[in-house]
Predict the structure of DUF4159 domain-containing protein.
Amino acid sequence: MSWLPLSFGAPMMLWGLLALPVIWWLLKLTPPKPQAEVFPPLKILARVLQREETPQNSPWWLTLLRLLMAALVIAALAEPVFNPREPLPAQGSTLALVIDNGWAAAPDWDKLVATAERLIADAGNKGELVIVAFTAEKSNAEIGPFDLSGALSRLRAARPRPIPTDRPAVYARVAQALASLPGASIAILADGLAAPGDEAAFKTLLSGQAANVVWVEPDRLAAIGLSSAKNEVDNFTLTAVRAAGDLAPRQITAGAFDDKGRRIADATLRFGPGETRGTGRIAVPFELRNDFSSIALDGERHAGAMRVLDNSSKRRRVGLLSQSDADQAQPLLSPLYYIRRALSPFADLVEPNSADLAEAIPQLLDRKPAMIVMADVGTIPAQVRQRLVDWVDNGGTLVRFAGSRLAAAGNDDDLLPVHLRTGERSLGGSLSWTTPQPVAEFPAGSPFADLPAPVEVTVSRQVLAEPGPNIADRTWASLADGTPLVTGLKKGKGTLVLFHTTPEATWSNLPISGSFVEMLRRLVQLSRNQGSAAAGTEASAAALAPYRMIGADGMLVPPPADARPLPANAKAVTLENPPGLYGSEAGVVAHNLLAADAVLTPLARPQMDVPVTTMRYAFDESLHLKGSMIAAALALMLLDTLAVFWMGGLFSRGGSRCRGAATATTAAILIAVAALSLHADPARADDSKPGDAAAIEAVAKTRIAYVLTGEPNVDAVSRAGIEGLNRFLVEKTALEPGEPAGVDIAKDELSFYPLIYWPIDASAPMPSAAAIGRIDAYMNQGGTVLFDTRDQFSTGIGADSASPATQRLRDILGNMNVPPLEPVPADHVLTKSFYILPEFPGRFSGSPLWVEASLDPDNADNRPVRTSDGVTPIMITANDFAGAWAIDASGAPLLPTVPPDPEQRLYALRAGVNIMMYMLTGNYKSDQVHVPILLERLGQ
């Protein structure tokens, strides 16, 4: 009967079915049916000589019912399992479980964990130890061996990572651990994606004497990743990549999002039959394209499906200006020819309609360019000069190229980075070289510092800068003799740049080199963020702090605790440098998972000399029937009891209750009483009620509560944050709070806690109306709720375009009786309850702390603080207090502040102290103003 998907854990118990005939013989007898006698004496005497007839057999249906009940009990004891799974074919005393938890494992993570749990359970039932290793964790992570509970705990604590796997390092560790455990079983749970070094890694892992190998992989590698997102001249071009084994035609939708998470454009990417790369275009104006902050593929829940964008992906409008163009028949001699060729791939170029500078410059400025390039422009007309200077001061980047006109025009200190000598230096002149000069290495303070020196470039003619104390700081590129080739200067919010040679290949061959394109590209990038040369240099030379990361599910999340600053020119995505944005609000750098030439190759199972069992990721679909059979047997027992009562006349309207029914009823009552007496404890019979112990524990110490949102990451940060605040309170005050209390606002008692911290998360379930009503009652009865939307980096509480978290807060407060609110005034007790604080920062800064508005804010004559003696029932912030307070087990900060500033974390902790002192003591400092009057009345 192999067609029946049923197995038994204890098949020997089925021998009990042979006892069914004996049970049938015992059950066919039933007590005699009680006989109803009529009282009249004559009828009794008439029947006294009659012989009493006693039924000898029970009805056939009652016997069948009892036989079925006995069969169910016997079958239940045999532990039947419907649709059983095959156990692990292990032969050794150890199971080595090697699991891929890189970005490609995220879509099948739940199935992967379910499969691994079954393997661990099979090994644990056999008493085997289990090694659990993950290929996307730290190299020193603990791998065991573990017992059953330890292995399951290690598995359930793991999460997919938004990084590639590192099989060679992890497989080497597992092979080293198995060297002392010969004959172990190895289970490889692969994500289906090949990686460099796999062949050597598998050879290392299987170098020992393994008893057998269990190979587990997904059904197919169906993930699609974004490998490129380019802001072209007329559209935004997207490129996606899929595995080579996926040959069916397919199309997928991508969404473009701004820095507030709003979807502002869409694109459709198409894969033809057998194509591994699909492309799509977003044809919107470049002003809208410049607002793109990230691109994500719909329906793809992994890190490779999102691509973040920085300033290098944003096109800028660049104005081109020249006083003379070469003949159209000789375009290579045009001053703007090579500039157009170099800038057109990554900038939108605009040119004036007039050759008159008095008209051309205003035409360019009206187009609001980010950068203007002037090719050999000499004297700038006085009527437009000041407007051009103001444009630079407000953030524009002006790039000028030398030439005969500029050399003859003299100095223009407001629009040149250095003071120039009159005339130019050339071969054969008074300041000539014997040979053309090469370009020296770019100086460390230059935006071109990380570019290689163009060894093929030589310069035969240039304009010279007057020597001065600042000439070295303003030199971005120089010749071998030390004279400047490119100089730059920050002016106001903008930048002035001068190439000391011409933009055409007459004075040098720089314009026809690849370095010319890269140098102009750096200048365009510099203009995009309106930064200075120094800022750009520091950003490229120093490590950048993590700002917003791409999670394993393809969503933007705050930086994890193990994220580290991104080193300069870092390319690889690692556990310390996961994909995402690095920097600060002033400027970020995108660090994406997939390169433009990325290829997704399906992982092929290696050749093995040991027995191999191939499996697929799947949930455990086996169904244990023991409980269902026991429940069915109990139901039949209840039916049997009711049948006996019915046959005994218990449910008949007329007639007396029979002796058999009374006996059965009495027995049932005695059984119920006996069952209840087994749970009675006379020694503990008191008036305590369920939940009293928890209530006593809750009020024994002052405890800060936080709302359980249902999101594990959010709840973990809330608890870690309150633990950090508690430690700071113990160090700085006399208060010793108890452990943080996570509360379910729908059912937990809230009155035990003076303050409840509620982190608002748009992905958490919306609280029910009853739960919101309980919070409203808690606030009306004297409690305070601190709402934290944690979205200061995207939008504020009162912003016109609310973030998802702020919108969720509005939905919650819309069902409550919220008093009028105001930002904490400068004279509020919160600003001085313990520390003197002008603001209340958290992990972010900038959002005000909103409290209940004062009833009489203008009454400052009698009291220098707020007039209300009560404590505000509500506080609202967007600064992420818990994220700033949160600490790990060693006491180190769990999350970085934005911007990364230790002082900001200190002020955030002080803000938490002020809030707690205010909650526990109220407006006590406002009453101190009466102390002089009281002392005067006392005669002191």
User: Anything to note?
Assistant: The longest strand covers residues 263-271.
